[in-house]
Amino acid sequence: MTHSSSDGQPASTPPPASAYVALEDGRYASTDLTRGPWHPQHQHGGPPIALAARAIERAAAALGLTHVARLTANLLRPVPIAELAIEVQTDYAGRNVAHFSAQLHAGGKEVARFSAVAQRAAGLAIPAGLPGHPLPQAPRTVEASPLAPFLFASKTTGYHDLIEGKVAAGVPFRCPSAVWFRLRHPLLAGEAPSALQRVAIAADSGNGISAILDFHRYIFVNSDLTLNLLRQARGEWICIDACTLLGPDGGGLAEARIFDAEGLIGRSTQSLAIRLRD
């Protein structure tokens, strides 16, 4: 694996060991493992969304709310590979449900804005025989899924080095397809990633693995990501079963079912802006 210098060119130094390193006062240093496919100095959406999810779930846990049922990320600007800062607000907190918002800043600018709903977890027996239950399983188990090549992989360190993948269905980057994702490195140095962080890092790749346009001719960047989760993920592997749909006016939608090894855990959607490359 080749590490890259600040200008995105390969260098001889070892690759980083995590996506971010915690600094002081809620700030984080970004590493090259966050690099996305669209620009050498811009992050993939997954890592910064997961970093904000970490801050939100910590605020929720302080209120005894351990299940983040919805997370929406609005990606206002490209997130640079630079120092980041996160601010979280509790918009409303009841006994069993709370609403949160958060902002991600880089270089003195707000680059992403988030909202989330967190719930108090409580054991509940579900009646047998309900329509649609038991919930569906991933198309193929992790053990039966072959390794997934990444179309966006390059010799420069990036997101493709942060994660590994296995093909659960279809052909990646040819809609529809399903891919299992697992982190090779932690999100934050010295800290095991939470279930929500694992889901966020994987789910933002839905539009990539289900791409139907030529990556070399078109840009199809997502400007948001919404996760709706019915329970916490269990285990290291997260399956994203995605499909891309295109409209006639430069817009698109990537939608996905999300699984862990035990079955369906939720869904995700991404709004796409489709453009021809210059």
What are its keywords?
disordered N terminus; two-stranded antiparallel ribbon; 13-stranded antiparallel beta sheet; 278 residues; mainly beta; Porin
Which helices and strands occur, and which strands form pairs?
Elements: E1 3-4, E2 10-11, E3 20-22, E4 27-30, H1 46-61, E5 67-75, E6 83-93, E7 97-106, E8 109-119, H2 159-162, E9 163-171, E10 174-183, H3 195-203, H4 206-209, E11 218-222, E12 224-229, E13 238-246, E14 251-260, E15 263-276
Antiparallel strand pairs: 1-2, 3-4, 4-6, 5-8, 5-12, 6-7, 7-8, 9-10, 10-13, 11-15, 12-15, 13-14, 14-15
Helix pairs in contact: 1-3
Task: From the 3D structure, determine the CATH topology.
Answer: Porin
User: For the terminal residues, how far apart are their CA atoms?
Assistant: 30 Å
Q: Per CATH, which architecture?
A: Beta Barrel
- Total domains: 1
**Which radius of gyration do the C-alpha atoms yield?**
18 Å
Strand content: 35-45%
CATH class: Mainly Beta
Task: Bin the helical content.
Answer: 10-25%
Poorly predicted ranges: 1-12
Major sheet details? 13 strands, antiparallel
In round numbers, the mean pLDDT is 91
CATH H level, superfamily name: Acyl-CoA thioesterase, double hotdog domain
Topology pattern, helix = H, strand = E: EEEEHEEEEHEEHHEEEEE
Structural class: mainly beta
Q: How many individual β-strands?
A: 15
Outline type: globular
Q: How many separate helices?
A: 4
